[in-house]
Every structure is written in C-alpha cells, then in structure tokens.
Design brief:
- Helix content is 32%, strand content 25%.
- It has 13 helices and 21 strands.
- Strand 9 and strand 10 form a beta hairpin.
- The chain is elongated.
- The chain starts with a strand and ends with a helix.
- The structure holds dihydroflavine-adenine dinucleotide (FDA).
- The site of dihydroflavine-adenine dinucleotide has 38 residues, from helix 1, helix 2 and helix 13.
C-alpha cells in the first residue's frame, strides 16, 4: 500500500485540532486529522460539567498566562468569542451566559463536538481516530509520519496534541517530544486550574470540614480571584482556588479573605454592638459557615465575649480574617488539573500563524503552546483562535 499523500496532517483531535482542520479544509486543503483516542473531542465532552463553557465574551490577553503575555493577542483578535458564537448559532445550539461572560450549552457539550465534526465533514477533512503516530521525519520540504494507518506524507504538520492534564482522557507529552525534535524550547510544565492539597497539621485543621463552601478572595503572587472555595478531604478546591493554583508554587504565600463581600471590621463592630455578651465564635458563625467559624477560633482567632475586645483587637481579628494564611503542600497534579501551564515556547512561533520559526510548515496550536487561560471558557477560546490562525495560514 502506497503512502497517503495529503496537504496537512494535524496531530490531536481536540478543540484546537478540530477548528484548525475545519478552517484548512474550507480553504481547499486536503486535511488528515489524527486522534489516538477512540473519539475526538473528549475534553470538550467532559468540560463545563457536560455543558462546555465554550467561550468567554470578556476574553482579553489579561486572561492568559504565558512567558510572553502579548503572544496570544493576534490570534485572539482575529477569531473572537463573537465569531465562535456565530458558528454555534448557525448550528442552532442553544446557549446561556452563566456569569462573568461565561457561555455554556443549554443541553450538552456533545453538541459542540457534533458541530465541529459536521463542519469538518463539510470541509472534506478526513478524521482518523484510534490512530497513533510513532514518528515524524522531515523530508522533501514536508513531513513523513509513521502511523498505524501506514506512512503519511504531508506538506504541513500541525501539532495540536494538548497538554498533560487528565492522562485518562488521552493526554500525552507527544507534542513536547516533537517540539524538542524540531529544535523548539519547551517551558517547564506544571498542573494548572487544579485543587491544592494540605498536609500535616494544616490538613488536620481542615480535613473534617470537608464539604464546607464559602466565597473567598484568594491572593498569591500579586494575583487575586474572588469566587467560591470548597474544603475537600485532601485540601481545598472551588473556582477561587483553581484560579489561584495557576499562580501558586510550593512555598508561595497564599492568603484568603474569608469575608470578601463586606468590611470585616465594620461587620464585627456591628456584632459587638448588637450582641456584646456573645462570644466571637458564636457571632462569627453568623457570618461564616458555622463549622469553619468554630475551627478558626480553635486554631488562630482569640475567642472571648465580644464586649472584651478593644477596637484595636477587633481590627486585628478583622485583619486576620482578611488575610488568612493557607499553607498548601502541593496540587492534585495532572490527574485532575484542567490545564497544563508552560509548553512550547512562543519565542520561536509566529503569533499570527502559529508557525515555527525554525521549521517551515510546522505549526503548534492550543494547549501544547505556552499560553494558558484562566478558568471560565478562556482555554477553549485560545484553542479556537489558535486553531483558526494556523488553519488560515497552513
Ligand atoms: P485537547 O486536550 O483538547 O486535545 C488534544 C488531543 O490530542 C486529545 O484528543 C488527545 O487525545 C490527542 N492526542 C494527544 N496525544 C496524541 C498523540 N500522540 N497522537 C494522537 N493524538 C493525540 N476549558 C474551557 O475553556 N472551558 C471549560 O469548560 C473547560 N472545562 C474543562 C474541564 C476539564 C475536566 C478539563 C480537563 C479541561 C477543561 N477545559 C476547559 C480546558 C480545555 O479542555 C483545554 O484547554 C482544551 O481542550 C485544549 O484544547 P487542545 O485541542 O489544545 O487540547
């Protein structure tokens, strides 16, 4: 059997790969999309609690972490959340805004995968699942891929194999291996948007509070996120913690404002005026989840009848609650992380086309690149935008 001759081979049938295949196919390119799992778009399917938070209408470069914070701008400007919404609308997929510009499908994330597959079919893209690539070689101005399908000769190669998070969903480090092979630097990778773990006395302080949830403002390394927090058996989770986890590394100072929605000193003063004989812990239990309020008074806050606090002491209690230290020992790792921080260094990629500066007709798109979004639909928007940029150029 002779080698398969195509224009564009795309490794990875996730969000970025599907979008790139569609756009390149619509431009008349012969495209082969190679996915080693049994189906494409597995992360899309599991995303957003099964409803896929497919974009965020407030997307800006400030929502992304990268060694070069400007790199993502060009692609994001040329394929916007409105462009993706227009596509979703054309396919009659009903959606709603949950909060802060986060858009979700009303019914199921499978609608997004169906949409992308239909678009790929209309664009003549050949999609091969359960197909692995053993090696890639550069030859005759193009690439030769040794795959389970046989030899594939492609004029251009797009690496869209994603990051390392959730290996059980098909994640591999193959994109980084290819990057190294073709002389690209890869920035150190680590789990992002991931629950934090506690250990030792810090775990003992909180583990029996598992299930307690409250709004907090989490702060670390100059970043702050106000959202929900959840205490788990092993540590802490919830949107505020997932967001700050992308900025935290072991040893970093992590602080929580436990009452982010009010002036804590004024709230305590109000309690003191109205209930001067009550103990601090009893009145804190009116402001915070009860089990947490009692625990805070066991492990850090002085507990006395409120009338005994002078103003300076009440201010000190308020300051403690606004800057509660949380000593995390690590993260849950790639097993549960939503994204991988780091990846293919953007220095050697064109920000307009995502093409390699070292190797002509080699592209890297999506999460394999050192561009990582905050929680809230930004990561898919980067996948669509970078896929669109490469698909328009390849
Ligand atoms: P993606 O990981 O989607 O695709 C890569 C593909 O390459 C996979 O299909 C993989 O199997 C394949 N592959 C890997 N190695 C290969 C190889 N050697 N050969 C062939 N194929 C290979 N983001 C967001 O914006 N909104 C949300 O709601 C969520 N929710 C969410 C939930 C969960 C549980 C996770 C884990 C992640 C999210 N995300 C998210 C993040 C989002 O899923 C992620 O950023 C994008 O899927 C990245 O798209 P890519 O196409 O780059 O990688």
């Amino acid at each position: 059997m002779g080698a398969l001759q195509i224009d564009v081979a795309i490794i990875g049938g996730g969000a970025a790969g599907l979008m790139c295949a569609r756009v390149a196919g619509l431009r008349g390119r012969r495209v082969l999309l190679i996915e080693h799992a049994e189906r494409v778009g597995k992360k899309i399917l599991m995303s957003g609690g099964g409803r896929c938070n497919f974009t965020n209408t407030g997307t800006t470069a400030a929502n992304f972490i990268s060694a070069n914070p400007h790199f993502c701008k060009s692609a994001l400007a040329r394929f916007t959340p409105q462009d993706f919404i227009a596509l979703v609308d054309r396919h009659g997929i009903a959606w709603h805004e949950k909060e802060l510009g986060q858009l979700f499908c009303n019914d199921s994330s499978s609608q997004i995968v169906r949409m992308l597959l239909d678009e790929c079919a209309a664009a003549g893209v050949r999609v091969e699942t359960r197909c692995s690539v053993a090696q890639v070689q550069q030859r005759d101005q193009g690439f030769v891929l040794t795959t389970t399908l046989g030899e594939v000769h492609a004029q251009a190669l797009v690496v869209a194999s994603g990051g390392l998070s959730i290996p059980s969903m098909g994640a591999t480090g193959f994109g980084y291996v290819l990057a190294h092979q073709f002389g690209h630097a890869v920035r150190a990778t680590r789990a992002g948007l991931v629950p934090l773990t506690l250990s030792g006395t810090h775990q003992q302080h909180y583990q029996d509070l598992s299930g307690v949830a409250l709004p907090v403002e989490a702060r670390c390394n100059g970043q702050r996120f106000r959202a929900g927090m959840l205490v788990t058996h092993r540590g802490i989770s919830g949107p505020a913690i997932l967001q700050i986890s992308s900025y935290w590394q072991p040893g970093d100072d992590l602080r929580l404002n436990l009452l982010p929605d009010c002036d804590v000193f004024e709230a305590l003063r109000e309690q003191q005026r109205a209930h001067s004989d009550a103990e601090l812990r009893t009145r804190l239990a009116e402001l915070l989840p009860r089990r947490l309020a009692l625990r805070l008074c066991e492990i850090g806050l002085p507990n006395r009848p409120l009338r005994q606090y002078r103003e300076a002491e009440l201010r000190a209690v308020a300051a403690q609650m606004e800057s509660w230290p949380l000593v995390a020992s690590g993260t849950e790792g790639y097993r549960t992380a939503e994204v991988t921080l780091g990846g293919v260094d953007t220095d050697a990629l064109s920000s307009t086309t995502l093409q390699s500066r070292h190797v002509p007709r080699l592209y890297f798109i999506g999460e394999v690149v050192d561009v990582t979004g905050h929680l809230g639909g930004y990561n898919f928007q980067w996948a669509w935008a970078s896929g669109h940029a490469a698909g328009s150029a390849v």
